Amino acid sequence: MTGAQRRIAALPMYDFPELAPTHDALWSALAHLLADAGVADCPSTLRRDLDPRAVWGHPDLLLGQGCDYPLAKSFAGSVRVLATPRYGAPGCEGARCRSAIVVRSEDAAASLEDLRGYRCVINERDSNSGMNVLRAALAPIARGAPFFSAVTVSGAHRRSAESVAEGRADVAALDCVSFAHFQRLYPDTTARLRVLTWTPSSPSLPLITARATCAATVLRLKQCLAAVAADQKLAPVRARLFLEGFDLEPEPEFASVLRLEADAERLGYVTLA
Fold first, then answer.
1. Which of 126, 133, 179, 182 is the most buried (most CB within 10 A)?
2. Nearest CA to 75 among 247, 257, 245?
3. Number of structural domains found in the chain
4. Please, where are the H alpha helices in 61-201?
5. Are the beta carbons of 229 and 238 closer than 8 angstroms?
6. pLDDT 10s digit of each residue in the chain, 273 long?
7. What CATH number is given to the structural domain containing 175?
8. 30 and 113 both lie in a single domain
9. Pair 238, 143 in one domain
10. Which residues, at least 6 apart from 59, have a Cβ–Cβ distance to it below 8 Å?
11. How far is Cα 61 from Cα 8, in angstroms, rounded to an integer?
12. Of 200, 232, 267, which residue constitutes the final position of a domain?
């Protein structure tokens, strides 16, 4: 750690405004456990003033959550994966998740092939759930050629969902946990969408700590995460987040997302287009 009281915690990936109190409750319980376990300078509150990439690269990150693909491509030397959440949303399988490939509810598309020439919207160019797994789904039929007539970047899965629902785009890939939250929180938007199919799966968005976090603190983090997952008093909090537990022995070095990238490149579909 570079200085006293510098450790930070942030859970930005699903921290929609409506879920902020739930994430605060989860962190409060975890922070108390960590402090009782002897973790020094454990932050009392979550940081919400930092861009996710600033969180992932922060040298004093105690606990964060990130997207596998940008972590693998740009932050692998900065972070250590602690755990992979197990979510209970449709499209999840243990500690793995798929993305829902959505079109408007009245759209006639019946297969991936029918999406050829559509306008696609993605949340970020380096998103795993919005781009990488969609590229992997399309690579076998794209035949190395551009598949969509346009690809635009929305900046967030919610904005991608709205773009499709409102007719500014025709298709998007939305990670299944986000989509399940949207169905609860923004039903007017999701009622105008239809899941055409699902992408290949990859690990759920990992919980991470700074690469410099010592082994003793890593062990305590994992022990406290296990305790949070087993605490019956936190069952309503976990249910609100679709959180069923954690895989505390995650796969190393983001192997799944990099394999999906390599498979698409092998088929000649390097850029989602």
1. 133
2. 257
3. 2
4. 68-70, 133-142, 157-165, 176-185, 187-190
5. yes
6. 444 458 999 999 999 999 999 999 999 999 999 999 999 999 999 999 999 999 999 999 999 999 999 999 999 999 999 999 999 999 999 999 999 999 999 999 999 999 999 999 999 999 999 999 999 999 999 999 999 999 999 999 999 999 999 999 999 999 999 999 999 999 999 999 999 999 999 999 999 999 999 999 999 999 999 999 999 999 999 999 999 999 999 877 799 999 999 999 999 999 999
7. 3.40.190.10
8. no
9. no
10. 2, 78, 210, 212
11. 5
12. 200
Matching residue, tokens 């346009």: 150
**Six token digits for residue 175:** 């990670």
Chain position carrying tokens 């510098």? 6
- b/e sequence 12-44, b meaning 16+ C-beta within 10 Å: bbbbbeebeebbbebbebbbebbeebebeebbe
pTM for the model = 0.95
Q: How far apart are the first and last CA of the chain?
A: 42
**Domain range enclosing 65:** 8-91+203-258
